User: Fold these one by one.
Assistant:
Number 1:
Amino acid sequence: MSQLFNVLALLLVASFFLVERSSASPSSRDNDEFDVKESIEIIINHPLNKERPASYLLGPPLTEEEIVLTLKPVLETRDVSHFDGLIQLYKVTNGLKTLEAEADGHPLKDIWLIPGYYLLSVHEVVETLSIMMRTSGVWIPSWLPLFASRTGDFVVFDTENGHIHEILTKESLRWEVAPNLQAFIHGIAKQLRDGRILLNENGLYDVIITDSQKHEIYEDSILDAPFVSPNARNTFNIEIVVHEENVGVPNLDFNCTNMPRVCQNIRNAIASGKTRSLQRITDKNQIKKNRQAACGKVTCTAPNNSCDEYPFASTSQGGAGATTMCVPLSENNSQGGQLAGFYRKNNVKDKDWFNMRSP
Ligand SMILES: *[C@@H]1O[C@H](CO)[C@@H](O)[C@H](O)[C@H]1NC(C)=O
Ligand SMILES: *[C@@H]1O[C@H](CO)[C@@H](O)[C@H](O)[C@H]1NC(C)=O
Ligand SMILES: CC(=O)N[C@H]1CO[C@H](CO)[C@@H](O)[C@@H]1O
């Protein structure tokens, strides 16, 4: 508890530092210290969100008592009064009614609140955590899933230290995007307000960053942008243990029992000439680019379905032209777990080759 307090004190210092930095910049207005409510308002009222009715699909706010009560089982003995950002967020809105919105004909990207992600309601946070704990194999109990993409990607709140991580469960990758929730939402609102975010050809957000020669560089994901968290750009493999021995080019055999449609999609892809020879990549930007190129324009109409792709987005062979299929959500964790297990067991690292043997 006192340890948590220390961490919290550190975070507080860190967030002040962030605010300090941004208000020092000459182009920003004086009152840069907007709170979570103001940040959310900036995000939903931004012209880029006009086509995405996030605001009217957002659920009504909850009271602090309701938030604490719902989260209590997952926070266990932790003192929830320390999680200011979480409380502030859900006091603004209880997230998006995803399934209702989709049933109402809105594609997933219409209900994004932040680039690539929609906000889960507090009940969905608890439910999704329990599903991920049962099925994912790489999920850590202290990760509260706050934002989800429905393709196995999440933005999570770590109850150990309040840090915000982006998690790609299928690829077993995570990285820290902000030291706390306030800084995360603030960072996104600020970049939207300052016009450093635009829509790319896939209808997704890009971030404009200027290099030392003032050339514009485009990042494909705002969540990676250094301004969200200047000190936190580390990418980690989850649970990938490094062994010394070289096992050659390993063969991947999927167990299709729990994911018949994923396997059917792979068979379709191979039948149409896609390669079985794959090279793993761990560059998160490239993985997300591949996923968007493959699945960005696919709308899965059946409830609880999400777009799956072969070759996988986490290989050099993935991306535009990949064979896609809408698969039940229940199949995504099965695939993610099997891939992660395969990479770990066979020590398949970045740029290593492997062979998709079956199906
Ligand atoms: C495949 O998965 C199912 C369900 O988890 C399991 O019952 C079965 O034993 C597995 N088959 C093989 C060959 O591992
Ligand atoms: C979709 O998933 C939710 C939550 O897991 C479940 O309650 C609902 O019944 C599912 N709907 C369909 C159509 O499968
Ligand atoms: C079993 C199940 O439904 N797994 C997950 C598939 O992925 C989505 C989001 O990426 C989760 O919401 C599901 O829980």
Number 2:
Amino acid sequence: MILQILAVSCLAFFANAQIDVNSCTDYNTTVDKCNTDNTIDGGNPLTWASVGMFYSLPGNVYCSAANKGNFMKATECIQKAYIACGKNDFHKFVSSVDGIKGGVEYYCNNYEDFDMNCISELQMCAKNKAPADQTMPTMDDEFNKNRDYYCGHAEHLGECINSNDKLKNCAKNKTMEIIMKIAEELFPPACDATSFVISSVLLLVSLFITL
Ligand SMILES: *[C@@H]1O[C@H](CO)[C@@H](O)[C@H](O)[C@H]1NC(C)=O
Ligand SMILES: *[C@@H]1O[C@H](CO)[C@@H](O)[C@H](O)[C@H]1NC(C)=O
């Protein structure tokens, strides 16, 4: 399970950007409480890494009738703790608490039609679209530098979702629509979603045409 989480940790799209939880004193205690208050039968306690990629957790376990409510509450609780560790406005570059909540609910209602393997190239695709000399900013960098980095990434990801062949050819053919909806939920509040929403509208139109 730990290996699985490490293997896919590069797939967290927006939720875990630049907030430094290691120097945030109450964070671990709060996360522990989020987990003990909302235990998942047959699942593992959640961390900031697994909340950022909730769509990689097995839906048949985490979204079962018995667990779904706690899964939603635990992810929401951890995202809130994570955001609280951010400085100034920097939480706007990570997914909002409502976004995580909406994303988890959507995933739980659709996981049977979703194949995680089909999105394995997206993060690299988005990375390759970034300027070669771009370095990852920190909370100490100015707002604009972070905005260029994270909002650029978000837009590139939207382009990749629409154009990646592996995803297009996914045998579970609703995977593309599902990851687009999830990415929309997780879209960082600081970024202008216009182009992203336009590309997802185009995607839905093109799905409609192929039906
Ligand atoms: C929080 O937990 C992580 C992982 O268990 C650990 O590496 C880190 O040092 C802890 N941070 C604090 C501030 O206690
Ligand atoms: C999607 O997959 C389902 C089940 O495999 C199939 O019945 C359907 O025709 C496919 N739809 C498209 C648009 O390819």
